[in-house]
């Protein structure tokens, strides 16, 4: 739980176990005032203390039944950030892990604030020499001096600058009086620091998610010349945050000289601005000026906004497959000439015979007009496949589990509500579909499917996409198991992304091929895949 303080972590654990602070104090033999100091973040147990072990043992000793244990496990699962929750751990390990993580977070946060305070040098502009720095531990204030004369601070060191920006973000989003809720961030030189699995990155993402939940708009400006492969890693890493329409990414190319005027900017409207400069020797932040008046922030925001005349949005938003607009875009992209690579994990609707597709639609509650439109668009996709398969490669990566679930539970793993809704396919329907997949494989040399186990590809399965050579990339950004984290995410209007930038398309093609090449030949050999599909069909036929 590295994005939560020790006090918040402990307080939530006490709520989950329905235990009072005074009860915990008696259980671990400390004064109750110490417990409440922990909860209010006035104190944090030191690294060499035994308090976390004592707290963990006491909490677990208050579990008296398996039903209670399961209930607590479920609450912990909902409470934990998905990327940190580990179901393989025992309950006491989960509790101690979260306490240790939050302990480290709190200690590091206090330490970083002290370091930042020590490295800030005041440079008083004009005659306003009596302006004083406020204590960072009390919440740093960014004062506006009279007559547009303000106290400007200089911060030294890459890490100190990052944590100062983080503290600005965490402080600003908690101020309800701020009206202009806009955050601007440039990433012109280095994306690496936002893709590490450290406490800073987790806190940064957590703060962004909270900001989006509270109605803030967040805009990134990135440099595509930096490294397109890193842009893919960046998209994968930011996939959850990108579900909000209030999160935007614009891009530029560094050969445009106008963009060499700045290093990095971090602007929070109505709050403050960091103007950052990089070291000439290493690609790290070296110095940063802190501007805090509304006049300075407005000037720098105008400067930032002027770049957008030469920038393009990296992606456009498209709604769920439930809506016809996305189906139209899908058919449009697939009709473009070029090889097609799809990593979605689930069995492709492209492999579904038109007759079966139409049958499922007619069993739903859709209108005749919508059914006709969807069948028309499905036929565009099928015909595009037939016309192009002789000249271009079509490769799909599916999860074995998606077919096993279809066979055993009569349930399609793809967004079934947009075709099936409450319809349950029959054995004959499933056999018809799988036999059509086999026919497509046997009839087309350039069509291949790799069948992999989802559990073995967790690092790549969290991002699902289809890329069409020279045309575009369609990205599904979020699976439903993370929805409780995001108040802004409306599952009736699920968001997908479309990217048309050529260099990113090429990078995604190469990325798919690299994943394909890492898959064991046994899982993508056409004959073996066909034999495995026939085994699934045999399980559906009467014995």
SSE inventory with pairings:
Elements: H1 6-17, H2 21-28, H3 32-39, H4 51-60, H5 66-79, H6 91-119, E1 121-124, E2 151-156, H7 158-172, E3 182-187, H8 199-213, E4 217-223, H9 228-237, E5 247-252, E6 264-268, E7 272-278, E8 285-291, H10 294-306, E9 312-313, E10 316-319, H11 324-335, E11 340-345, H12 354-362, H13 368-388, E12 394-399, H14 400-409, H15 427-443, E13 447-452, H16 458-461, E14 464-468, E15 472-476, E16 495-499, H17 502-518, H18 526-540
Parallel strand pairs: 3-4, 4-5, 11-12, 12-13
Antiparallel strand pairs: 1-2, 2-8, 3-6, 5-9, 6-7, 7-8, 10-16, 11-14, 14-15, 15-16
Helix pairs in contact: 1-6, 2-3, 4-6, 6-7, 7-8, 9-17, 11-13, 12-13, 15-18
User: What count of domains describes the coordinates?
Assistant: 3
In CATH terms, what is the fold-level topology of the largest domain? Endonuclease, Chain A
Mean pLDDT: 79
Query: How would the global form be characterised?
Result: globular
CATH superfamily of the largest domain: Endonuclease Chain A
Proportion of helical residues? 40-55%
Approximately how much beta-strand content do the residues carry? 15-25%
Can you tell me the CATH class of the largest domain? Alpha Beta
Our measurement of the CA-to-CA distance between the termini, rounded to an integer number of angstroms, reads 52 Å
What order do the strands of the largest sheet run in, or round the barrel if closed?
1-2-8-7-6-3-4-5-9
Q: How many strands in all?
A: 16
Number of helices: 18
Largest β-sheet summary? 9 strands, mixed
* Low-pLDDT sequence parts: 81-86, 119-146, 479-493
Radius of gyration over alpha carbons? 27 Å
């Amino acid at each position: 739980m590295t994005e939560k303080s020790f006090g918040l972590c402990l307080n939530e654990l006490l709520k989950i176990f329905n235990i009072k602070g005074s009860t915990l104090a008696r259980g671990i033999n400390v004064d109750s005032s110490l417990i409440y100091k922990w909860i209010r973040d006035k104190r944090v147990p030191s690294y060499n203390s035994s308090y976390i072990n004592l707290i963990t043992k006491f909490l677990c000793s208050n579990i008296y039944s398996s039903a209670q244990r399961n209930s607590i496990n479920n609450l912990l699962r909902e409470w934990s950030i998905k990327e940190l929750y580990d179901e393989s751990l025992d309950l006491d390990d989960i509790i101690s892990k979260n306490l240790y993580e939050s302990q480290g977070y709190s200690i590091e946060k206090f330490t970083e604030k002290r370091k930042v305070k020590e490295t800030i040098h005041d440079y008083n502009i004009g005659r306003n020499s009596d302006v004083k720095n406020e204590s960072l531990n009390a919440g740093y204030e960014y004062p506006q001096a009279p007559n547009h004369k303000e106290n400007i601070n200089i911060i030294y060191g890459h890490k100190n600058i990052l944590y100062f920006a983080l503290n600005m973000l965490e402080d600003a989003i908690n101020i309800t009086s701020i009206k202009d809720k806009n955050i601007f961030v440039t990433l012109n030189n280095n994306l690496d620091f936002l893709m590490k699995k450290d406490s800073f990155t987790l806190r940064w993402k957590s703060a962004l998610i909270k900001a989006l939940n509270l109605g803030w708009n967040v805009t990134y400006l990135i440099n595509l010349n930096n490294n397109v492969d890193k842009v893919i890693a960046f998209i994968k890493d930011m996939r959850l945050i990108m579900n909000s329409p209030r999160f935007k990414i614009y891009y530029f190319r560094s050969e445009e000289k106008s963009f060499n005027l700045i290093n990095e900017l971090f602007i929070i409207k109505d709050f403050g601005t960091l103007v950052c400069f990089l070291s000439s020797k290493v690609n790290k932040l070296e110095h940063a000026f802190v501007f805090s008046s509304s006049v300075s922030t407005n000037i720098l925001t105008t400067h930032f906004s002027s770049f957008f005349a030469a920038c393009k949005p990296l992606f456009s938003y498209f709604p769920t497959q439930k809506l016809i607009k996305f189906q139209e875009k899908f058919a449009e992209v697939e009709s473009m000439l070029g090889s097609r690579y799809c990593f979605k994990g689930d069995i492709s609707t492209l492999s579904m015979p038109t007759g079966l597709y139409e049958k499922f639609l007619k069993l739903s509650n859709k209108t005749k007009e919508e059914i006709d439109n969807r069948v028309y668009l499905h036929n565009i996709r099928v015909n595009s496949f037939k016309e192009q398969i002789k000249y271009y490669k079509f490769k799909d990566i599916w999860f074995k589990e998606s077919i096993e679930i279809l066979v055993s539970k009569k349930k399609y793993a793809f967004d079934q509500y947009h075709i099936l809704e409450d319809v349950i396919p029959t054995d004959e329907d499933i056999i018809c579909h799988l036999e059509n997949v086999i026919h497509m494989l046997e009839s087309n040399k350039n069509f291949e499917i790799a069948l992999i186990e989802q559990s073995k590809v967790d690092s790549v399965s969290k991002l699902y996409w289809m890329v069409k050579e020279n045309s575009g990339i369609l990205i599904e950004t979020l699976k439903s198991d993370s929805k409780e984290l995001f108040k802004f995410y409306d599952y009736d209007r699920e968001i997908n992304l479309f990217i048309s930038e050529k260099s990113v398309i090429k990078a995604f093609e190469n990325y798919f091929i690299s994943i394909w090449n890492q898959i064991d030949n046994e899982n993508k050999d056409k004959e073996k895949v066909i034999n495995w599909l026939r085994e699934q069909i045999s399980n559906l036929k009467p014995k």
